[in-house]
Amino acid sequence: DAMVIQNPRYQVTQFGKPVTLSCSQTLNHNVMYWYQQKSSQAPKLLFHYYDKDFNNEADTPDNFQSRRPNTSFCFLDIRSPGLGDAAMYLCATSRPWTELNTEAFFGQGTRLTVV
Amino acid sequence: AQSVTQLDSQVPVFEEAPVELRCNYSSSVSVYLFWYVQYPNQGLQLLLKYLSGSTLVKGINGFEAEFNKSQTSFHLRKPSVHISDTAEYFCAVSYHYGGSQGNLIFGKGTKLSVKP
């Protein structure tokens, strides 16, 4: 039944060791988003894909990269995780944003711990 | 730039009591407004949204919200809460289409704690 699936749910990585988080969707949505949610803070958009077009938010650190090999999958790569990157990472999908389509569907998130 | 303010970080309430979670936004352009709920260690689930038309919108689980343009507010209400409503609630805005897709700008969240 799950429509946006994030793996793993919990990820522990070492300081400075590259890590990849995965998101897949069964909704066939054009748009996929990655949000970062630090403890007691608002989810913050890192970037999104509209099909294969990548859109980076201006204040997203270079340490964060993303790949979308096909419609169903999107990956978040953190090249050198720091302690400040510990957070919940949320993947979401949507159709192209119009008044008829204004719902983003979220996965359950991946909680990243950096040790 | 848009911003969303949720004035209360925590709201404790007794079961069957009414509750209001407050949200104010600032934007120089028209926006869509949303409320999402997040249960512990879960993703975000849409409760309700305001796009246009009637300013009172009804959502799932008995929640409703009222858009007030003059006060730039979108407060969430429920007349009688249940233990199962214990969760964190996020108010969010997005640009209309033609802007930055569905990029949601969230408030910091309000933790609703329902006590028996």
Could you walk me through the main structural features you see in this protein, from its secondary elements to its overall organization?
The complex is a heterodimer of chains A (115) and B (116). Chain A is mostly beta strands and 115 residues long. Chain A has a single domain, classed as Immunoglobulin-like (Sandwich), CATH 2.60.40. Chain A is built from no helices and eleven strands. Chain A has strands at residues 4-7, 10-13, 19-25, 31-37, 44-50, 53-56, 64-67, 73-78, 87-94, 105-106, 110-114. In chain A, the strands form two sheets. In chain A, strands 2, 4, 5, 6, 9, 10 and 11 form a seven-stranded mixed beta sheet that branches. In chain A, β5 and β6 form a beta hairpin. The radius of gyration of chain A is 14 Å and the shape is globular. Chain A starts with a strand and ends with a strand. Chain B has 116 residues and is mostly beta strands. Chain B has one domain: Immunoglobulin-like (Sandwich). Chain B is built from no helices and twelve strands. Chain B has strands at 3-5, 10-14, 19-21, 24-26, 31-38, 44-50, 56-58, 64-68, 73-78, 87-95, 105-106, 110-115. In chain B, strands 2, 5, 6, 10, 11 and 12 form a six-stranded mixed beta sheet that branches. A four-stranded antiparallel beta sheet of chain B has the order 3-9-8-7, with no helix packed on it. In chain B, strands 1-4 form a two-stranded antiparallel sheet. The radius of gyration of chain B is 14 Å and the shape is globular. The N and C termini of chain B lie far apart (41 Å). The mean pLDDT of chain B is 91. Chain A binds chain B through residues 4, 6, 9, 31, 33, 35, 40-45, 48, 50, 55, 57, 90, 92, 94, 96-99, 102-104, 106-109, 111, and chain B through 4, 9, 32, 34, 36, 41-46, 49, 51-52, 90, 94-97, 99-109.
